[in-house]
Amino acid sequence: MRVIRWMCVVSLVIVAFNVVGETCSPVQQTDPALVEGIRSFLKFPASVSIEIVDAEPVNGSCYERLMVETVEPTRLRDTTVFLSPDRRFLSHDVTDLSAGATDRSSTAAAALANVPSDSPVLGRPDAKITIVEFSDFECPYCRNAAKLIESVVDGDPNIRLVFRHLPLAMHPWALYASRASVCAGGDRFWKLHDFYFENQKLFTPQNVAEKTNELLTLLPGFDPAAFQSCISSVASLDTVRRDVRAAAKLNVAGTPSVFVNGKSVRLGNSADEVRSQIESIVGHSVRVGRDLTFLVLLRGTGSAVTPEAKAEGDKFVEGLRGEGRVSTLGLASSNDDKRSYQIFMLRADDAAAARAIIARHPLVLRKAVSMEVLNWQPEKDARVGQP
């Protein structure tokens, strides 16, 4: 009997070890049986290619969180599923009941502070407040959100906007628009950004490429051959995929999805509501704008301007826009000499600062244009944030 008891004890120890101390079996991301099982679970047709692009344990357990990606000519989709420890069962979600369970969303959101170097950014790089927006150029709600967010970022040195791509599978031309904006790059990204949102209803999957090219050919420094090479390569797709995967890890499924300093926020219906959301997160009031707004007129002096010089001037103004200093741009005609001139609004601390900024304009330095800086309107409700 004593021998039998010892055998029972040993058996219990072995069972306990197998339950508690067992090493998790690795996930074979290319396993055909697992891939086909996921296809059946998610009801994807056989014509759609499926790839498991990421696998990670759930809070130290043997459950695995799998990121599944499908890429079609006009659609890109990342879906999260969970695999059981015995590698037999799939589910859409798991719930951790342990007292030490971590909030994965808040942990992952904090990583948004590390902005990819090639992400489009509007505002000053040293801004204390970072808004990260996951957006879709075909989404009407994103169009409205873009206007609200830019009105808050515009002219405020404390806030910057980081744009990240999330073209939804339901929108047939959104993926092309994202890839095209990646290939346009730099200041041209924001030109396309505004172009897509302002003319959303005019685009179709059949005409989006043509209309995109029509705009880009008007922009200085555009290289059609380089653009076509970029959009035909996997590089532009990989940039979009990076953002879509980041959204999936944050459990972001819809657009627009907005984070302020890593925390998710719901946008309101006005710029004031957006500011209130920001203030509730950062713990202090945010500045509406610089003290003064100036009207700047740049008139031609009659000197010849080469295309390269004009491109330098346009890049300078776009740089000011990126810093949040320029709020509007346009051209006007002079009644006396019928020549057009550039006109825009500039935010600065005072008139001397405004003149000093415009004096650095490449065409002003070349004396190809003359500048006139007029006091427009004081910002009576300017609030300075106290970090």
Low-confidence stretches: 3-21, 378-387
Mean pLDDT: 82
Structural class: alpha+beta
Oligomer: single chain
Please give the order of strands in the largest beta sheet.
5-7-6-8-9
**Rg from alpha-carbon coordinates:** 27 Å
Spatial separation of the terminal alpha carbons: 75 Å
What does this structure look like?
This protein is α+β, with helices and mostly antiparallel strands. It folds into three domains: 72 residues, Nuclear Transport Factor 2, Chain: A (Roll), CATH 3.10.450; 173 residues, Glutaredoxin; 87 residues, Alpha-Beta Plaits (2-Layer Sandwich). It is 39% helix and 22% strand. It is built from 13 helices and 13 strands. The strands form three sheets. A five-stranded mixed beta sheet has the order 5-7-6-8-9. A four-stranded antiparallel beta sheet has the order 1-2-3-4. Strand 6, helix 4 and strand 7 form a beta-alpha-beta unit. Helix 5 packs parallel to helix 7. The radius of gyration is 27 Å and the shape is elongated. The chain starts with a helix and ends in a 9-residue tail after the last strand. The N terminus and C terminus are likely disordered.
